[in-house]
Design goal:
- The structure holds two protein chains of two kinds.
- By secondary structure, chain A is an alpha+beta fold.
- Chain A folds into two domains: 97 residues, 2-Layer Sandwich (Alpha-Beta Plaits); 62 residues, Alpha-Beta Plaits (2-Layer Sandwich).
- Helices cover 24% and strands 20% of the residues of chain A.
- Chain B is of the alpha/beta class.
- Chain B folds into three domains: 200 residues, 3-Layer(aba) Sandwich (Rossmann fold), CATH 3.40.50.740; 226 residues, Dimethylsulfoxide Reductase, domain 2 (3-Layer(aba) Sandwich), CATH 3.40.228.10; 125 residues, Beta Barrel (Barwin-like endoglucanases), CATH 2.40.40.
- Chain B has 23 helices and 26 strands.
- A six-stranded mixed sheet of chain B has the order 5-4-16-15-14-6, with helices on one face.
- In chain B, strand 17 and strand 18 form a beta hairpin.
- In chain B, helix 3 crosses helix 17 and helix 8 packs parallel to helix 13.
- The longest helix of chain B has 19 residues.
- Classes of the chains: A alpha+beta, B alpha/beta.
- At the A-B interface, helix 1, strand 2, strand 3 and helix 6 of A face strand 3, helix 6, helix 7 and helix 22 of B.
């Protein structure tokens, strides 16, 4: 089984419920660490404007670039469910390696606090919640049902295969 | 609370309803360990789940806000300086009661003003408790004019004779066209799940059009077309749409004949029979900036797509002559025959049916002392509708005029000389118009007591501050829902510090005033009694499950009976019909409230001579991460987006302003220093400063918090609409180097 997120940008209103729920569940203090983020893009010129909201977190890639980039071997992909996790004890710290994982990641998933030589933290797809039969906190927070998570094959059969699925 | 959770006591999960002022009503699952909230989840039960928004997801930081008021305090510095000393509850309550007695015996009961509000609105813990207590003990001066939607209420009463004119939001699934007029439910929640239903409507092919000065988040996600419009000109465009429908014979004559009165007089106005001005799309384009072609197309689309819902947001009505906008929307709803049918919309302001008498939950009422002695025998205002029962007394002062009334008193034509005020569940310095004037007014009072959770802008002016508990620290009941339900708000943890609930504060005052009614009765006692005559079958089950849903076979549609069987079900108006021409308004004979929907040029509009000096129209909208002033200091929310004034790229370039620059926003009433957000998402000539940011004046009196009401005018619309979206300002870049 490989667990994955599903996201439908046509449904996202940029309400940030997922972002704040994530911070509360994982007890992340206010500051630069966001396991989940909402990216807002504004395009066009008045009065022909378009705005898009994208809620994004770690994609738990099939072939995570962060794993091969990490000089300390602190990042791994769990065999049982494909969740990409970091061992903060092994992480050398952002300044020590230049944040190699963040440089490698195409979606800015690795997160660092404001403290000196901060160790990497990231979305773990709420592995504690799956054990209780609950989906990730962001998925259960979404008032617009724009987010889902589950076995990738099941998600693909429910929603259709999503472009870039190989990496995300 | 950043402390890491330690494995100590057992974690329990408590189901409760929320009582925030965001516009929604949701369910929470609150995790508690050793009496401390550790996490907050939301509804995981049966569909439709009531999932919380970002505000309640961050509520833990609000409960454990290091700046929460911990104990009663007495002012030691100047009013507004924020210097206080700790006192006991006994001393605080004794002081309030002795001041109350002194002021009443010296000046009479009307010298006592109560300012209540909707912050943490619920059924038990409300400022109505204080109103009842003051009524029982001699009386007080009350206010009228709901700042959010008095214009909508007025129009609903004048046109339909009732406030119960609102379809359920899930009925929008039956609409083939939805026009969101100044309505941005993605940001300003109008009942939990309304956006979810709107999204489903969109996904099933319903066309959604947004008419708004801003390209709102709702526009971005839900609408396929954006029609920008200048603030305060909505009525002109709506009337020009009527012109198109009449000219092209696209209106529902049989509906108008059967269910309405006065269309011919409206038609004469639209044609310009009296004033010589035909209300054409070109006429409206000049006023509103909406191209005539767009007005024509919108009129045709609304008239020929059935059923269609023109959902009138509250914002456009929070303006000069805002009542006319709501009246015009209703007239168009009648002209298109969209009243009383599934998928239509009667045009009531976007206030859910359950609020203010729209839906009867049959909950017991709090004691009101049999009415306010100060209002007894006092005639109603001459500009009050006869159906505006309760708040029509001429002894009341309109919310927008409170500051002026305190400053001028009877000599200024107001019904009372106010000497003291009690404030609960509201923050008038921040949220009433013309902040600087309110500051002057509060300085003039002999005594001010404020009950608050935090040191708000108003609390800083208080002589006595009382710390209030949050809704997670007391029991209560809320009602709401796209489909109606009762929610139980549970005491999840003990009140922090020395904070007390509004009921406990009322009890403390009551015992000192010789009123025994509240003695020894708990939240539970009151709530059990309130629920007794309601639809809730069992109080304890409600308390356990936190929700009881009233089952309904289909979405509620207002006026279904009146439309299906008009003989047996007349409208509660003088004519028994929908009054496009209102007899009540005709009798009022007030030029600002004409009997037919009329476009009246507003003060401080784009064509006001003042626009030479202050060329930008200011609107003061809701902000996603706040509920008015509430939640503004919650760190998890604050970091999501800064308070900023939105300005169109063209207006910014003309002033040398770049995105993120610090700018001065000013007019005759005040000045704000705030960050600029340069965007294509707002109409040129319009700036938007979200209301609710905390007033924070520097030594020169310049507000550095970004409180929009520093700039708004304290004048009410003739029918009572508040005018927070009517105002002119100028914006200028602040030179680097200067503070």
């Amino acid at each position: 089984m490989k667990l994955a997120f599903y996201f439908n940008d046509a449904r996202c209103t940029g309400c940030y419920a997922c972002v704040v729920a994530c911070k509360d569940w994982h007890d992340i203090p206010p500051g630069p660490v966001f396991f989940r983020r909402v990216v807002v893009t504004e395009q066009g010129h008045y009065p022909r404007v378009a705005v898009r909201f994208v809620s994004t977190a770690c994609h738990h890639c099939d072939k995570p670039l962060c794993i091969s980039a990490c000089p300390a071997g602190a990042i791994s992909k769990r065999a049982q469910d494909g969740i990409v996790v970091v061992d903060s004890e092994l992480c050398l710290g952002r300044e020590s390696c230049g944040g190699a994982c963040l440089v490698a990641c195409p979606s800015d998933a690795p997160q660092f606090g404001a403290e000196p030589n901060a160790r990497m933290q990231k979305c773990d797809l709420c592995c504690d919640r799956w054990a209780e039969g609950k989906k990730p906190i962001c998925v259960e927070a979404c008032p617009m049902r724009a987010l889902d998570a589950g076995d990738q094959d099941t998600l693909e059969s429910s929603y259709g295969r999503v472009k870039g699925g190989g990496q995300s | 609370m950043s402390a890491k959770q330690k494995k100590m006591g057992e974690e329990k999960v408590v189901k409760t309803a929320c009582s925030s002022h965001c516009g929604g009503r949701c369910l929470l699952e609150v995790h508690v360990r050793d009496g401390v909230i550790t996490r907050i989840e939301t509804d995981r039960g049966e569909e439709p789940q009531l999932r919380a928004c970002l505000r309640c997801r961050a509520y833990r930081q609000r409960v454990y806000d290091p700046d929460r008021l911990q104990f009663p305090m007495r002012r030691t510095g100047e009013r507004g300086e924020g210097l206080f000393e700790r006192i006991s509850w006994d001393e605080a309550l004794d002081t309030i009661v002795s001041e109350l007695n002194r002021v009443r015996s010296t000046y009479g009961p009307s010298a006592v003003l109560l300012l209540g509000g909707g912050g943490d609105a619920s059924q038990l813990h409300t400022s109505r408790l204080l109103g009842g207590l003051l009524a029982m003990t001699g009386g007080y001066t009350d206010k009228w004019g709901i700042q959010s939607f008095e214009g909508g209420l007025f129009a609903s009463l004048a046109t339909y004779g009732t406030l119960s004119s609102h379809n359920a939001f899930d009925d929008l699934l039956n609409s083939r066209l939805i026009i969101m007029w100044g309505w941005n439910p993605v940001t300003t929640i109008h009942e939990t799940n309304t956006n979810w239903y709107l999204l489903q409507a969109k996904e099933s092919g319903t066309k959604i059009i947004s008419v708004d000065p801003r390209y709102t988040d709702s526009t971005a996600v839900l609408a396929s077309q954006w029609i920008p419009i200048r603030p305060g000109t909505d009525t002109a465009v709506l009337i020009a749409m009527a012109y198109v429908m009449i000219a092209e014979d696209l209106f529902d004559k049989s509906f108008l004949d059967t269910y309405t009165v006065g269309f011919e007089r409206f038609r004469a106005y639209v044609a310009g029979d009296e004033d010589g001005i035909p209300k054409t799309p070109v006429w409206a384009e000049t006023i509103s900036g909406v191209p005539a072609q767009d007005i024509e197309n919108l009129a045709r689309e609304y008239a020929t797509t059935k059923p269609a819902a023109l959902v009138a947001g509250i914002g456009p009505g929070r303006s000069a002559y805002g009542e006319q906008y709501h009246r015009a929307v209703k007239t168009l709803a009648a002209m298109t025959g969209n009243i009383g049918i599934h998928g239509g919309w009667s045009g009531r302001s976007s206030v859910p049916q359950w609020q203010f008498g729209g839906y009867d939950f049959k909950l017991g009422k709090l004691p009101d002392g049999g009415g306010n002695p100060v209002e007894r025998g006092v005639p109603p205002r001459t500009d009050a509708l006869p159906t505006l029962k309760g708040s029509d007394s001429s002894a009341r002062i309109h919310a927008a005029e409170i500051a002026d009334a305190i400053l001028k008193g009877r000599a200024g034509g107001y019904p009372a000389d106010i000497k003291m005020a009690l404030v609960m569940h509201t923050n008038p310095v921040n949220q009433y118009p013309n902040t600087n004037k309110m500051v002057q007014a509060l300085r003039k009072l002999e005594f001010l007591a404020v009950a608050e959770q935090v040191m708000s802008a108003t609390a800083k002016f208080a002589d006595i501050v009382l710390p209030v508990s949050t809704f997670l620290e007391r029991d209560d009941i809320i009602v709401g829902g796209v489909r109606p339900f009762y929610g139980f708000v549970k005491k999840v943890i003990e009140p922090l510090y020395e904070s007390r609930s509004p009921l406990e504060i009322c009890q403390g005052l009551a015992s000192r005033l010789g009123i025994s009614l509240y003695a020894g009765k708990t939240d539970d006692d009151w709530l059990r009694t309130m629920v007794a005559g309601s639809f809730v079958p069992d109080y304890d089950t409600l308390k356990e499950k936190a929700i009881y849903r009233i089952k309904s076979a289909e979405p509620h549609v207002a006026f279904k009976e009146q439309i299906e069987d008009p003989e047996q079900h007349p409208f509660p108006t003088p004519s028994g019909k929908i009054e496009i021409y209102s007899q009540w308004l005709d009798a009022m004979n007030s030029p600002g409230i004409p009997p037919i929907p009329t476009y009246i040029e507003p003060w401080e509009g784009r064509r006001d001579p003042l626009a030479v000096k202050y060329p930008l129209q200011l609107i003061t909208t809701h902000f996603k991460r706040r509920a008015h002033t509430q939640f503004d200091r919650v760190p998890w929310l604050r970091e999501l987006m800064p308070q900023a004034i939105s300005i169109n790229t063209r207006d910014a370039e003309a002033r040398g302003i770049r995105d993120g620059d610090k700018v001065r926003v000013f007019n005759e009433r005040g000045e704000i220093l705030i960050q600029a957000k340069v965007t294509e998402r707002i109409m040129p000539g319009v700036v938007d400063l979200p209301q609710g940011a905390w007033y924070d004046p520097d030594e020169q009196g310049v507000d550095r918090g970004g409180c929009a009401n520093v700039l708004t005018r304290d004048k009410r619309s003739p029918g009572g609409a508040a005018c927070h979206n009517t105002g002119l300002v100028e914006v200028a870049k602040v030179d680097e180097g200067k503070p």
